[in-house]
Specification:
Elements (H helix, E strand, L loop, with lengths): L1 H21 L3 H21 L4 H7 L10 E10 L2 E7 L5 E2 L2 E3 L6 H13 L1 E13 H4 L8 E13 L7 E7 L14 H11 L7 E2 L1
Parallel strand pairs: 1-6, 5-8
Antiparallel strand pairs: 1-2, 1-4, 2-3, 2-7, 5-6
Length: 205
Amino acid sequence: MKEKWLQWVTQLQSIAQAGLTFAENQYDTDRYQQISDLTADILHNYTEVSYEKIKDLFTNETGYQTPKVDVRAAVIKNKKILLVKEKVDGKWSMPGGWADVNSTVRESAVRECFEEAGATVNTRRVIAIHLASKHNGPLSPYTIYKIFVECELIEKSFKENTETFSSGFFSLSDLPELSIERTTRKQIELCFEAKKHKLFETIFD
């Protein structure tokens, strides 16, 4: 039931956003804005997401609402995977984040590795495309596609940055506490499985 009400709220916000884009008179605009504000209030009161973040990422867009894209880099060397310690929660995840406007998936993976882990990489292939609500928690007020990209390490030298405390390589049997909103154990296992095969068919929801 918890997931169902969130689906209703996100659908209402999608309708409100489209309505605000295409409304032809002030009366309709005001009503759609009320719906948008109401969805933000509901989410703020019934989720762990701050009101500021909801307004910034959920009700502040214009045009037809589409999913957000989160690109994660799978850098595996000597049977260990590269992880970064997130400043936002002190837990670990694969390097990654929101894809930038006018940036390709390849460019996003390379950039995130360098900025968060100090790692220079080459991209090889897309391992998987996940709908975050089916694989990661907690529940999010917006739809997210998570793209996992297998990368080959060239060199690594961690640099101080605004997003991560540190970076390191970990075996599957010795994983630190994960930031499951960003990376789960099953997703890491999937990346290790892909690494074993010269040919691997991309998995997607």
